Amino acid sequence: MCRHIAYLGDRVPIAAVLTEPPHSLYRQAWEPRRQRYGTVNADGFGVGWYADGDPVPARYRRAAPIWADPSFTDLVRVVRTGALLAAVRDTTDGSVPDESAAAPYGFGRWLFSHNGALPGWPGSAADLAAELAPEELLALEARCDSALVWALVLHRLRAGHAPAQALADTVSAIAVSLPARLNLLLTDGTAIAATTWGDTLWHRLDPGRSVVVASEPYDDDPAWTELPDHTLLLATREEIDVTPLKEPPA
What we know:
The strands form 2 sheets. This protein has a 7-stranded antiparallel sheet. It is of the alpha+beta class. It is about 20% helix and about 35% strand. Helix 6 crosses helix 7 (about 165-175). It has 7 helices and 13 strands. It has one domain: Aminohydrolase, N-terminal nucleophile (Ntn) domain (Glutamine Phosphoribosylpyrophosphate, subunit 1, domain 1), CATH 3.60.20.
């Protein structure tokens, strides 16, 4: 499994979201408090962020543990942003170990992360992959289950689906055939779409100023709210909309 987080709000140093809080994503790499599967997220990390005037985010990803990269703490101390998505990784067996598999994945203005696993990977994924055109399969960022999930989401986004619908339909398509864990995060820098399907997800809204959606709270502020499992979330700086996800047919 993994831990991930998305932030929209006032421009702040990335460190204010990822490293400075007492239970930040940085600390969750070795000491997550609410992770249901796995214990240490040391197989890579990444952060994507948006700069003023540029709709395409930058990404910084590594295959090493987040605490083993001194350049990262330097970077996040000085770079400021009003929107980001970041993750620390606990790899799925059979997945490529290099940084290409570290979230966030990206295309155009989109950033994406998958916290979960496709059981039986890679053999279990053949039917899912059949949904994609050959050129989409060849464009996979990495040989891992999360990259395939991202390709399925992106396939729907390109077809014109709204972000929340793209996530919901992808979860439904996978869950019909696999007992997968599918906590997904997607942002374009203006809104956050997310799903809970097998692990924890929390949100904290300061209306008009900021919203954070994360695998677990990065501090003990009582404003954090946990989402029920099998839930779809759409968040902006002003509001949060929550909808139950349909169970797959028996």
